[in-house]
Every structure is written in structure tokens, then in C-alpha cells.
């Protein structure tokens, strides 16, 4: 039982593969500065994004599966006297493996445990690459320009009709050279989320979650940049409806906790997501 | 049990999050053979295109003409620079106009000015919050 608002979730035990499409509109509402003070965007600045992705997941053994995520984004920005505009493109492609170390229901009192290991490809355009494309607004920025290794663990305990899931993840971006020739390395990123859900109707699962993300300081030429660590927190709700034995509709809403001290050096957004999933068995 | 551990981890992260606050006021660092002063044509700095006026003097206080200036705006805390190249033109003796100084997003930006004339060099770095 699951209503996943992040990631691609997992295959049901009888599925051979699953594919899906999701699209999300993220409205920028403000940002935390490097003192963790939150400020709403003023009239002179707006930042919204329409992000979509195709994803697929295929079973490679009884417990292991592989996934691929193909994201792209359309960004809209209004920046003071630069005016406004939209742009976008392919984002950072992600691929990885998921291993169900303990499956749901395998042990009565023990939670299901899933391990993931993935890689993020720098297929999107990074901010420093926007200048070379005469994109003053930066709307063509869809990625971070760096390879990253991601690992995670997901613990899920089910007691029908309820479930509780804890997701913990770490992302380690690799160093990269910027357009100006400097070596830049984003700091390792920690993510955690706590989700509580319930099957409210047959095949309809609703969940709520809280999430935290923290990223350590950026290194430029091996030197840590002061105040460059980031943090973000948010809450959300998701609903999934398996309206057919193969098809599931997904709906989610996510909001940053846009208050002083609950984020750092990071934009805050309100994001609405709809998705459709097909599972083959 | 796992829920309890998860809650402890969550609270620890919240505590860590609350301790991340550390501010950065406007600051300037001047070094080298020149006295470099700079001011935005329109203050305070705003998102979008800005113009920076730079005055270059030597150690005796005389204007420095014909120097080469490189102006590099960086949003270091996000790991990127500006989306536009700054063009420098000398307006009068020792006075240089640097535009567009583009800040494509709000936040703390650092602007580095490197000046060079012959064998002499100088650098000025300042940072400020763009709103």
C-alpha cells in the first residue's frame, strides 16, 4: 500500500514493470536567505516552474528493480527590468536500482525495508551555462550540471488500512568544472520524509507527509563557501486511486514551510502534481 | 520502535535546521595598487540589470586612465554567476561604467572587480543582498 508523492515508488509484488507520467506546477512563493529568514517575492520577481517526467521501473529479480526518470521543465521568470519570459528543456536524468531487503508483510512486526542506489546525469542545463545561451532570465536552467550518486533507505510498516513510511536519502554530487573554468562541488545532501497514509476507500490511498532536506556548503576550488549550505522543509499530501487493475491516478500537493528558521538559502514553493501510472503483470 | 527512532532523527534534523542561521552584511575587501571605489547607479541593488560606476585611483590619489577592468558577479552561495557578461567602458578619467550588472535572482551576491594597468593590479570584492 502506498501513495508516493516523491520518487517513483515501488513495483507491486505481482508487477513486472510500471511506467508513469507526472506533471507538476511549482509556484515560487519566496525564499529563505542565508540567515534562514524567509521573505516573500516582491512585485519585481516571480519564479514558477512546470515540471514533468516520464518514468519507468522494471523488475530484474524477485526483490530488485531498476528505474529511470526522464524529467523536463518549463520555467517562467519575471526579473525586475529584465522583463519576463519562459524557457526550459530536459532536466537531470536519473537512473538506479531498488532492492526490497524486507518485503511488506514478510515479517509480522518488522517494517519493510527497501534500499535504493542511483545516479543523476548532468543532462539539464546549469545556471552558469545560461550565459553562453544568451538567457539573461535563466529560464533555460533545468539542472545542476553535475553527476550525483544517490543512496536511500525506505522503511514502511503497514497495519491495514494504515501505513507509516520513513524515507532517508543521501545525495553526493561530484565535482564539475564551470563555464569559467572553476572546479565547483555542491555539498552532500541529506533528505528525510515521514509519511502516514490510510486506505480510505477500496483502492484509494491518502497520505500526508513532512520532509526535510539539508545540503552542506559548496566547495569552489576546494574551498567551502561561507553560508552556502541549504535547508528546506515542507509538508504535503498525496492521493492515489487504482481505478483499474493496471492503472493508478496520483494527485499530490506539497508546500514548503515558508517560515523563518525552517529553511536556509533556498526558494520556497507550492507544488501541485498529477500523475498516471500503468503497471504490467 | 522504528517510528520512535524516526521521530528522534526528525527532531535532530529540525534542531540542525534551526541552527543554520548566520548572516552576512555588506562588506568590502580592497587590495592591490589601486584605490577602487564603486557605487551602483541606482541603489539599493535590485533584481535585473544594474549599473556599477567604478572609480580608480592610484596610491597618490590620481585618477587611473586606460585600465582594464573585469567585473564578475557571483552568487557564491548558490554556486553560479550572472547570466549576462558585464561590459566596462571608461566614461572619464578614472571613471568606469560597468553594465549590465545582472542579478537574475534575489539573494546575496558577491561582485569582484579586478583592475589592471601595466604591471599594477588591484582587486575589490563586495557583497550585498539583492531584493
Kindly summarize this structure in a few lines.
The complex is a heterodimer of chains A (281) and B (131). Chain A is an all-beta fold.
Beta-sheet strand percentage of chain A?
A: over 45%
In total, the number of domains of chain A comes to 1
What shape does the CA trace of chain B take?
globular
Q: What is the domain tally of chain B?
A: 1
Instruction: State the helicity of chain A in percent bands.
Output: under 10%
Q: Give the CATH architecture of chain B.
A: Sandwich
Give, in spatial order, the strands making up the sheet with the most strands of chain A: 1-3-4-6-7-8-9-12-13-16-17-18
Oligomer: heterodimer
- Relevant CATH superfamily of chain A: monomeric porin ompg
Average pLDDT level of chain B = 80
Describe the structure.
The complex is a heterodimer of chains A (281) and B (131). Chain A is an all-beta fold. Chain A has a single domain, classed as monomeric porin ompg (Porin, Beta Barrel). Helices cover 0% and strands 61% of the residues of chain A. Chain A contains no helices and 18 strands. Chain A has strands spanning 17-32, 38-40, 45-59, 64-79, 83-90, 94-102, 112-120, 148-159, 162-173, 176-177, 183-185, 189-201, 204-215, 219-220, 223-224, 230-241, 247-256, 266-280. Chain A has a twelve-stranded antiparallel β-barrel with strand order 1-3-4-6-7-8-9-12-13-16-17-18. In chain A, a hairpin with a 3-residue loop joins strand 4 (64-79) and strand 5 (83-90). Chain A is globular, with a radius of gyration of 19 Å. The two termini of chain A are 17 Å apart. In chain A, 43% of the residues are buried. Chain B has 131 residues and is mainly beta. Chain B has a single domain (26-130), classed as Immunoglobulin-like. In chain B, 13% of the residues lie in helices and 53% in strands. Chain B has a five-stranded antiparallel β-sheet, with no helix packed on it. In chain B, a hairpin with a 2-residue loop joins strand 8 and strand 9 (120-130). Chain B is globular, with a radius of gyration of 20 Å. The N and C termini of chain B lie far apart (46 Å). Mean pLDDT of chain B is 80; it is low at 1-26. At the A-B interface, strand 9, strand 12 and strand 13 of A face helix 1 and strand 5 of B.
